[in-house]
Amino acid sequence: MYFGGYGYHGMSFEQKYRCYPASFIDKPQIESGGKIIMPPSALDRLASLHIDYPMLFELSNPAAQRVSHCGVLEFIAEEGMIYMPYWMMENMLLQEGDTVQVKNVTLPKGTYVKLQPHTTDFLDISNPKAILETTLRNFSCLTTGDSIMVAYNNKKYYIDIVETKPSNAISIIETDCEVDFAPPLDYKEPEKPVAPVPLGKAAAEVQEAPVEPEPKFNPFCGVGRRLDGKPQKYEPPPVSSSGSKDKRPVNRGSGQPSAGSSSQSSSRQSQGKLVFGSNVNRSPKETQKEAAKATKQEEPKKEEPKFQPFSGKKYSLKG
Q1: pLDDT of residue 198
Q2: What DSSP element (H or E) covers 149?
Q3: 114, 129, 197, 215: least CB-packed within 10 angstroms?
């Protein structure tokens, strides 16, 4: 059975229309909601059917396999045409004049919906909850996967319907529905502040080169020289750093004689190895000659006479 020549048949309403955006009719208010404008013949057929109110419809685009749901605002469109919000046409991948199939449905009342804004600008609104409640009054139902548009302060905000319960399409008329928000699509986690590194540790990390140990002090490590200018025959053995504090090398050429070797020092002075007094003014050649003669005529060592006090010359105080 057909009604009015537009293909209405059976006990349900199902019809194909050509869709156009709200800019084709003087009804800009439908852009901020989820309702469409249908022709008067559709109202006549719906009135003759036993359908549930409020009237809810399923919109489908078989070419793109897209499905959405909506309510109806008025029945003033031209026959064979419907007007819908442009954001709804974008969700269903419809162009102006494309064919869309409209079917009446009954949807359960929603208990939960999860929304996700496209941008963080929506969260910058002073009271986004109040704006969302006001906007959803123009919606009769919501469908999972749709992107609805919220207009506020001459700006459009798009929000995705991420999840709906108890089904993929719910009615939001006269129902208490729990609303949850997901992070916006362009939201980025704030970077964790990096703890400042102390200057001492930073300098230690930069200058990790091994520090060379400082050389230890080695006493008496120089070269000995004779006072008479002759070359030194005896070379002292190298002194290790460990024994430098306890042992001191004896330099026979330039060192001072100890108390135990007083006998040897006096004999050597008589032999001409150490030249003092009047011999200082002599030339180096004369001193070398005398030293050579003294070495050839070296006599055996004699014991040093004991110290005899008051052994000098006597002088008279009378003069």
Answers
A1: 60
A2: strand 147-152
A3: 215
